[in-house]
Amino acid sequence: MTIKLLAIGKTDNKQLQALIDDYQKRLSHYIKFEFDIIPDIKNVKNLSEAQQKQKEGELILSKISNTDALLLLDENGKQFDSVEFSNYLQKRMNSGIKRLVFVIGGPYGFSEDVYKKMQSKLSLSRMTFSHQMIRLFVIEQLYRGFTILKNEPYHHR
């Protein structure tokens, strides 16, 4: 299985990017991982919230295939603790899917078309995090999940 993370807009903070790079490297020891950045939409000041979500949705859907399992990072999604999340990852790997795609949407969330394609929603917290930081949190939790599955000492129970 491959895990892909899709996000809108590049990370501007160099320290944050260095941490993301570090966890991507760590994660690559366990699974094939892809991180795909969708460029920010130009002239968003001229777009309504709905138009911006629609344009971002079209870009997101252009990056996935019909066989991908789409998981949206959404404030209304299911919440797991880290051990439950590792079990979720194991179940997805056992299901035979080729690619599990996590998507971090834009500032207004996802278009209806993206919601129609998703298989599930995941919330990392009831709190709101910046779109920059959530990338690090997702990749770190993926890494943590795989260390739990391998009974490695990174996660303390």
Plain-language structure description:
The protein has 157 residues and is α/β, with parallel strands linked by helices. The protein has one domain: SPOUT methyltransferase, trefoil knot domain (Alpha/beta knot, 3-Layer(aba) Sandwich), CATH 3.40.1280. Helix content is 42%, strand content 21%. It has helices at residues 14-27, 49-62, 82-94, 112-117, 131-149; strands spanning 2-8, 32-38, 69-78, 99-104, 120-122. The protein has a five-stranded parallel beta sheet with strand order 2-1-4-3-5. β1, α1 and β2 form a beta-alpha-beta unit. α1 (14-27) packs parallel to α5. The longest helix is centred in the last third of the chain and has 19 residues, at 131-149. The chain is globular. The relative contact order is 0.23.
Summarize the structure.
The protein contains five helices and five strands; from the N terminus they run βαβαβαβαβα.
- The best one-word shape is globular
The CATH homologous superfamily is named SPOUT methyltransferase, trefoil knot domain
Q: Give the strand line-up of the largest sheet.
A: 2-1-4-3-5
Helix coverage percent: 40-55%
Helix-strand category? alpha/beta
CATH topology, what is it called? Alpha/beta knot
Poorly predicted runs are none
How many E strands?
5
How many alpha or pi helices?
5
Helix/strand order: EHEHEHEHEH
CATH class: Alpha Beta
Main pleated-sheet profile: 5 strands, parallel
* CATH-level-2 architecture: 3-Layer(aba) Sandwich
How large, in whole angstroms, is the Cα Rg? 15 Å
Distance between the amino and carboxyl termini: 27 Å
**Average pLDDT:** 94
Strand content: 15-25%
